[in-house]
Specification:
Blueprint lengths: L1 E2 L3 E7 L5 E2 L3 E10 L5 E8 L2 E4 L1 E6 H6 L7 E10 L3 E11 L4 E3 L3 E5 L12 E5 L2 E5 L6 E5 L12 E10 L4 E7 L6 E2 L1 E5 L1 H6 L8 E9 L8 E9 L4 E9 L32 E7 L6 H15 L3 E7 L5 H8 L2 E4 L1
Helix pairs in contact: 3-4
């Protein structure tokens, strides 16, 4: 494990300096941010091309090692890099939630016909304009498919649709989550009844209850192409990354009007103090106490208002989740309805 300025990093495969088999080098490892840095993407640069990988495979062992509050961390990465025989130098970079890339020292390998093959391959490559994208499909015991994205894919109120089907041939699904940045996770509707799907896939007995649909948050400032990840969580709490695909988001149809440099800002008018010593009261409603974009924004607002000592904040949610303790820490009471 290496400690860097942005976090901790470990390349688990292949060993540095190893002689490997081509024509694709498959790299696997993990990275965890520190000092408030949240990592969201990974890439490898080689021979003037950029190869985007998949960051966010779940790791329960890393959650235990770093004393995370959640049972698993979306911290593992896989990335495929097309190479020719001979010496190979790769530059690995990780992106944070603000869109900045953090570079690591280059790693060197050799590629030869008698080189070591990767122990396993859990992705496939798609060609892009400047390199490749590593993507991921459902794998055993998961079966499923994500519908192709709209063209153009325009976020609606900061969200993109997620449609498809998914079933676990080994055990029932408890939850299905989607994220575009490994920070905010959205719950998807899963195991919905669909008779047309059952007729289309008669070889899968569970296809009658396999429809998948929902929305995934797209935070402002996401860098194209965005990586959409979909996770399946079993009843025992084990999480698996079942889909990872790259999406190019279109700009919103109406851009906000620009402010001219000579325009004056409106005067600041402070709110009057009430004669009563009672604090102001705010009641906020959120759909879930799991860390999606809306709930995280509500937590920031609650923390800010409670820090002024002039506001009492109460949260109402339709679903309990790990952020309940965070709201309690900042002094916001929560109620599940």
């Amino acid at each position: 494990m290496q400690e860097t300025a942005f976090g901790f990093f470990n390349l688990e495969w292949p060993p540095t300096g190893a002689t490997l088999a081509g024509p694709v080098l498959w790299l696997r490892g993990w990275a965890v941010g520190q000092n408030g840095v949240a990592l969201t993407d990974v890439r490898a640069r080689h021979g003037g091309a950029t190869h985007l990988g998949i960051y966010g495979l779940p790791r329960a062992d890393l959650a235990a090692h770093f004393n995370a509050r959640q049972p698993w961390l979306p911290a593992e990465f896989i990335i495929g890099v097309p190479v020719a025989d001979g010496p190979v130098r790769l530059n690995l970079d990780f992106m944070d939630e603000l869109g900045a890339w953090h570079e690591l020292p280059p790693v060197d390998f050799a590629v030869a016909p008698n080189g070591q093959p990767p122990p396993r391959v859990e992705g496939r490559l798609e060609t892009s304009l400047d390199g490749t994208w590593t993507v991921r499909d459902a794998h055993h015991p998961l079966q499923g498919h994500l519908n192709p994205p709209d063209d153009p894919l325009v976020p609606r109120l900061g969200r993109i649709p997620v449609r498809g089907w998914l079933l676990d041939t080994a055990s029932p699904l408890e939850r299905v989550l989607a994220t575009t940045d490994t920070v905010a996770f959205n719950h998807l509707e899963h195991s919905r009844k669909d008779e047309e799907l059952a007729r289309k896939f008669p070889q899968h007995p569970g296809a009658l209850h396999a429809r998948l649909q929902g929305w995934a948050d797209c935070a402002a400032g996401l860098v194209n192409p965005v990586c959409l990840r979909v996770y399946a969580v079993s009843t025992d709490g084990a999480a698996r990354l079942c889909f990872a695909q790259r999406l190019t988001l279109a700009p919103p149809p109406h851009e906000p009007a620009s402010i001219t440099p000579d325009s004056s800002a409106p005067p600041i008018r402070p709110l009057p103090d009430f004669p009563s010593g009672r604090p102001h009261r705010l009641l906020m409603f959120v759909r879930t106490l799991y860390p999606d974009d809306a709930t995280l924004r509500a937590l920031d607002l609650a923390a800010h208002l409670r820090a002024t000592s002039r506001w009492a904040v109460r949260m109402v949610s339709t679903e309990d989740g790990p952020l309940r303790d965070a709201f309690f820490t900042v002094g916001a009471e929560t109620l599940i309805v």
